[in-house]
Amino acid sequence: xxxxxxxxxxxxxxxxxxxxxxxxxxxxxxxxxxxxxxxxxxxxxxxxxxxxxxxxxxxxxxxxxxxxxxxxxxxxxxxxxxxxxxxxxxxxxxxxxxxxxxxxxxxxxxxxxxxxxxxxxxxxxxxxxxxxxxxxxxxxxx
Amino acid sequence: xxxxxxxxxxxxxxxxxxxxxxxxxxxxxxxxxxxxxxxxxxxxxxxxxxxxxxxxxxxxxxxxxxxxxxxxxxxxxxxxxxxxxxxxxxxxxxxxxxxxxxxxxxxxxxxxxxxxxxxxxxxxxxxxxxxxxxxxxxxxxx
Amino acid sequence: xxxxxxxxxxxxxxxxxxxxxxxxxxxxxxxxxxxxxxxxxxxxxxxxxxxxxxxxxxxxxxxxxxxxxxxxxxxxxxxxxxxxxxxxxxxxxxxxxxxxxxxxxxxxxxxxxxxxxxxxxxxxxxxxxxxxxxxxxxxxxx
Amino acid sequence: xxxxxxxxxxxxxxxxxxxxxxxxxxxxxxxxxxxxxxxxxxxxxxxxxxxxxxxxxxxxxxxxxxxxxxxxxxxxxxxxxxxxxxxxxxxxxxxxxxxxxxxxxxxxxxxxxxxxxxxxxxxxxxxxxxxxxxxxxxxxxx
Amino acid sequence: xxxxxxxxxxxxxxxxxxxxxxxxxxxxxxxxxxxxxxxxxxxxxxxxxxxxxxxxxxxxxxxxxxxxxxxxxxxxxxxxxxxxxxxxxxxxxxxxxxxxxxxxxxxxxxxxxxxxxxxxxxxxxxxxxxxxxxxxxxxxxx
Amino acid sequence: xxxxxxxxxxxxxxxxxxxxxxxxxxxxxxxxxxxxxxxxxxxxxxxxxxxxxxxxxxxxxxxxxxxxxxxxxxxxxxxxxxxxxxxxxxxxxxxxxxxxxxxxxxxxxxxxxxxxxxxxxxxxxxxxxxxxxxxxxxxxxx
Lengths: 142, 142, 142, 142, 142, 142
Fold this sequence. Notes:
6 copies of one chain form a homohexamer. By secondary structure, chain A is an alpha+beta fold. Chain A is built from 4 helices and 5 strands, in the order βαβαβααββ. The first copy, chain A, is 28% helix and 31% strand. Chains A and B meet through strand 1, strand 2 and strand 3 of A and strand 1, strand 2 and strand 3 of B. Strand 5 of chain C pairs antiparallel with strand 1 of chain D.
């Protein structure tokens, strides 16, 4: 079992805002992250696939294909977008990194077999800034 | 003459949009950067002061004071904001990095004497992403 | 279960020195790290909390609160200090990164519930340099 | 149990090429990575040892000794070399990162006791570029 | 006058080898960089254009167009190539970073007007490794 | 004229302390940087040599030789040392980065001809942290 990873990035606007709360409550909980007119980030996204190496290629997964998959299924929907208003798979969800990685998992996990004979999705790591980041390993991970 | 630098950062939303143009023309020129609902970045900002070292401190400028000056005069007005709508000193200007560094220069250049006896502002460098960045040395620089 | 991380930093002096040994033995074992007059580092510290996201905020832990907790309980006691002489929680211990992360765990682990309803401490990672670093997951981790 | 890591680097040429296939098939599968005249990378290599800290030194492993071990056993055989033609332990194997970390594991795992009383090899992580990397934890790791 | 920069990268093999010298002399002068079977690097390339900002766009140069120009004229000819054997504009030249940036200047300098109304080429900076890099400002720069 | 640079690093302890002042005055001016028991940093040092490329090697300066010169003349005297007490060339000087780069210039500038036929010292850049750094171009630089 070897773990292979590909890093991509996207630039997006968002705000943290719970529509069930008043503006005051949102500002109290989320501080400047609730700014009505949005703020934004350069996000870095690392997707890791685990499996055994294909003896014909030496690859667990062709990272060019993994890159294309991530770009097509994830990056094109997020890059230069507003995470609260422009992204169908985030509709009705708080635009936190925690929620983002869980939704990304649902999209990518079933598609890994398209690009890797022996591999499966291991983790999705999302850097909102170089100092704030989250990682998700799927619900079956203990 | 020694050059001393301090790096700060801020996270903001913006779009590139010339209000004198149609939406179509904006999208043609600025592409996804013109997205109506904004996008955003983690900006890195490096301010450089040049001068001779004060013999009492060994400093051209106390970098803690330079940091405080940059945060008070620049970062607090930009961090977790929308550069097009929330920033008085950018009102009526296209929210490009080129315009940002020129406006920052106008604010910081006259205030350097507050924090440095022997120094003057040398340059302002702004990273929009790790791969796109601009630098300004003032109008007198050849 | 999502893992959320916050990176902080501190600058400190230390030396590696076992007081039960002679100076010669210390220099033989620790080399230049045993320099009598100290040396120092810019340490980077990454604290990871795991748990499920709070449905009201989308957060496992508010990273601003996690940052404040790390700064108050750890960074203020280490930053611009001497790890051998100035830090009560390191008294009587060798100032190695291994010992530092174990002591940090004892301080932070019981305090995570103050800042996160659903999360618990997962790991503490300490970079002494970009090339030397240690990580600790608590004693219960296999 | 604490995990301690050391990062080293090497610069090498390679190509991805399965000699059982035609040139056309290699170019179809590996694209520009199959370029007949090679290409190359600055590789970063992170080796992690886990164990309990030696009470006499505060160390799981002396990272200077770990560095020397990695350089002697691995880096000297790879740095400024061609991974396909110059490296005995890669002879007859596809020069993929997956195969590299598995071969490195075979070399380093039995030698860790030479430099650490209480530690054992935990993982080998290899960055081919800052965006493409692999990690291996040994065959016994689930 | 504002300076705008774009960073690109490429991965290539090369060796340092003066064909007018014996193998022994080459190894004496260039050391492992003369390895007969090549070695390689992940090169980072930063191209800087200077000029005044276009009042219609706020841009000295559209960095997407600058990126496309660099990729078309430079990166496509170097990425996943051998700098000694595969690159027409390096034919008959030692494959040093110094020679590379001078040749890149000759290609890019006359093409900047294609992508920028007010800008001209200011510098080309090439990182062979994060620790070894060169910069060129053209022959007219004092 | 091409500019070639080499990056080295060292880890050292220091404090900012003017012995002509009281402890109170030092703490007022230098804050925690005046901590009696020292603090420390991982310093990064970039030395730039400018000149024309030697036609026999394609080099302005052999960066391995520049590295050796910097290590022998500078790094060995600073690494794992106390900048206030252990470094002859800093004796009697405040241990600020500004003073460090000026003293390094005096040492390196006359020695560049030993390693480069056509080059001369252009600049010395010293990072105390990734966010605080200084650069010196010699006294003749305007």
